[in-house]
């Protein structure tokens, strides 16, 4: 089985961090590939950057259409998830959706730790129908770059935030940030700490093994015959229905 871990920002170090977390979670025999967009924001923290990054994700995925068994999006905003599910011929899993669904199987309500943009996470979880399961969001005084440069210091801040969320009633805590990938293996908390890359990898493996067919009708059916201008060759082909 070949799983693609696709970053949505252009920071290669974050891609590698996410791919390592996926490899740690993957079953024997699963090959983890990794991809970083050719263009886009270095780190996503705003609505504008998220919109730009969506194009980068689809452009990157088009290069791998038909060559992988599933995709895990290594971006905590689940950037371009719906479009990628429609366009790609294989299952596509968003890391935050996977983490949230996992949390729902472990307890009643979950908290979320993030670097920035809590409003975007509230909107994302509401879109998944999970707003009522969210107990709270804790922002930490650090950035994704800090997590790469000084992981021990950021780990301590995440641990403190998770402890606060647990004390406020969270039964599990999501790590909402691609740069937090793998922290679940280093931090001990009183409630489950859920890494979206680990959860997403395991869910992607399950979907591949289950052999579910891609929708052939409706809004998640593959695009076909769509004209475009200025896109990369693989992405334009994907819109024409010739990408896999």
The succession of helices and strands, N to C, reads EHEHEHEHEHEHHEEHH
Beta-strand percentage range: 15-25%
How many helices in DSSP terms?
Answer: 9
* Helicity level: 40-55%
Mean of residue pLDDT values: 96
Q: Major sheet: size, sense and barrel closure?
A: 4 strands, parallel
User: What would the principal axes of the Cα set say about the shape?
Assistant: globular
Structure description:
The chain has 244 residues and is an alpha/beta fold. It is 43% helix and 16% strand. It is built from nine helices and eight strands. It has a four-stranded parallel sheet, sandwiched between helices. Helix 1 crosses helix 8 (196-210) and helix 2 (47-62) crosses helix 9. The protein is globular and about 55 Å long.
Write the layout of secondary structure elements.
Blueprint (H helix, E strand, L loop, with lengths): L1 E6 L4 H14 L5 E5 L11 H16 L7 E5 L6 H7 L4 E3 H12 L3 E5 L3 H10 L6 E6 L4 H6 L1 H17 L4 E5 L16 E3 H15 L22 H8 L4
